[in-house]
Design goal:
It is a single chain. With about 425 residues, this protein is α/β, with parallel strands linked by helices. The chain has 3 domains: about 130 residues, NAD(P)-binding Rossmann-like Domain (Rossmann fold, 3-Layer(aba) Sandwich), CATH 3.40.50; about 170 residues, 2-Layer Sandwich (Dihydrodipicolinate Reductase, domain 2); about 80 residues, Alpha-Beta Plaits (2-Layer Sandwich). The chain contains 14 helices and 17 strands. Strands 7, 8, 9, 10, 11, 12, 13, 14, 15, 16 and 17 form an 11-stranded mixed sheet that branches. Strands 3-2-1-4-5-6 form a 6-stranded parallel sheet, with helices on both faces. Strand 11 and strand 12 form a beta hairpin. Helix 4 packs parallel to helix 5 and helix 5 runs parallel beside helix 10. It is elongated, with a radius of gyration of 24 Å.
């Protein structure tokens, strides 16, 4: 007789309702691939009357998710509420303590409470699976934990937010300004209609960076402050200039070991158009991993949406159904390292600097002299005057310099009346 696993789904937003439909329609396929049966015994959401794309079984519906664990023998619980705290954290915590396996796409929850929840799961000998929390349908977490388990990973980076990548790609393709493309992204469902801030300011990508670095470097999820910048200040002018230089602007999340210290950051980067990462457009995600002996590994795919997310959620489900009881971060929690934070002031990059200035004699020399004072040397310079307004755009690509040098140097330009606005700074990858 085949074993039957009782399943509960908590949270019936876009992801939750899509997942529920997949569970109902793929029972036979799951049975063939795992030799087990699944039975959805309970579902939960705030409002049973809310219009949803798929019909739900009202007989197994609960407005209070905690009632599920009281009234049913649940083997596996899917948490698809979102948010790092509140009901999301409490129901996951309760399930793990009740020796129930948990599967979640909630990167905010794992990024903030992953250390505690991983320890709790290990203590109760159940799985805490979160493949869908990073890069949607791309199996990057399982690749690190299993496929690349014996490799020594030194760096992992990539495009981790589909909304930002779509906006930057569409600005280039349509020649439209940031705000116009953002409105388009909201209409298409790529950006939150109310407040897309977490996608645009880099926070979403950074939560994923923290999860990736913990897995890649066998460490606890860090709580260090870091350099985090979004795409809100990127203008169409920067997109056009980058194109002229055979470059593209991408929002990258980066995790790297530098002298055995942890460096994590999210910020826009100028990348070569011909590179792998430079050709990842639209809502696609991509992750590049550097390790030994594997070398460089590149994974690309859809990073968001109910379909790709459900794909990863079901992957986690099948792993559990096959009896694969494993540590949430690949090794015992007690063996996870606590890494020191790399000093961000020592971060080295070439820079793209754009100045909007009054077109007057001596302004360019004021800028270059100031750069030289802070040991920032010019690699390439483009000056575009506008005779109608007596203004000019000056773009400088620098040789490599430290973060502290660039920070101190640029702060001085605020006092220069010939420089009309805060200079735009974008770091250059490689």
């Amino acid at each position: 007789m085949k074993k039957i696993y009782n399943i509960a789904v908590v949270g019936l937003g876009q992801v939750g309702i899509y997942l529920l439909n997949e569970l109902n329609h793929k029972k036979k396929n799951i049975e063939i691939k795992t030799g087990t049966k699944i039975n959805v015994v309970a579902i939960s959401a705030k409002n049973i009357k809310k219009k949803r794309k798929f019909k739900i079984n009202k007989r197994i519906f609960y407005t209070n998710p905690f009632d599920i664990l009281k009234k049913h023998k649940v083997d596996i619980l899917f948490e698809a509420i979102g948010l790092s705290d509140g009901v999301s954290k409490k129901i996951v915590e309760k399930a793990l303590k009740s020796k129930v396996h948990v599967i979640t796409p909630n990167k905010a929850l794992i990024s903030k409470h992953g250390n505690y929840l991983a320890k709790l799961a290990e203590k109760n000998n159940v799985n805490l699976e979160f493949e869908a929390s990073v890069a949607g349908g791309i199996p990057i977490l399982r690749s690190i934990k299993e496929g690349l388990a014996t490799n020594k990973i030194s760096k992992i980076y990539g495009i981790l937010n589909g909304t930002s990548n779509y906006i930057l790609s569409e600005m280039e393709n349509s020649n439209q300004k940031f705000n116009d493309v953002l409105i388009k992204a909201q209409k298409l469902g790529y950006a939150e209609p109310g407040n897309p801030k977490l996608d645009l300011n880099g926070f979403d990508a950074f939560a994923k960076v923290r999860i990736l670095s913990a897995l890649a470097f066998n460490s606890k999820i860090s709580q260090h402050k870091c350099l985090m910048e979004g795409i809100e200040k990127i203008e169409l002018k920067d997109i056009k200039i980058a194109n002229q230089l055979d470059l593209r602007i991408k929002l990258l999340g980066i995790a790297e070991l530098k002298n055995n210290q942890l460096f994590e950051t999210v910020h826009p980067c100028l990348v070569n158009k011909k590179s792998y990462i430079g050709n990842v457009n639209g809502v696609m995600n991509a992750v590049i991993l550097e390790g030994k002996p594997v070398g460089e590994t590149f994974l690309q795919g859809e990073g968001a949406g109910p379909g790709p997310t459900s794909s990863s959620l079901l992957s986690d489900l099948l792993s559990i159904l096959r009896g694969n009881i494993k540590k949430p971060f690949g090794i015992p929690f007690a063996q996870l390292k606590v890494l020191k934070s790399y000093n961000i002031n020592n971060y080295i990059n070439s820079l793209y600097l754009r100045f909007e200035v009054r077109d007057r004699p001596g302004v360019l020399s004021q800028i270059t002299n100031r750069l030289a004072k802070y040991r920032i040397s010019v690699k390439r310079l483009i000056q575009t005057p506008d005779k109608k307004t007596n203004k000019a755009t000056i773009v400088i690509i620098t040789h490599k310099t430290s973060e502290i040098n660039s920070k101190n140097c640029l702060s001085i330009f605020k006092k220069n009346k010939n420089i009309l606005k805060t200079p735009t700074l974008i770091r250059v990858l490689g």
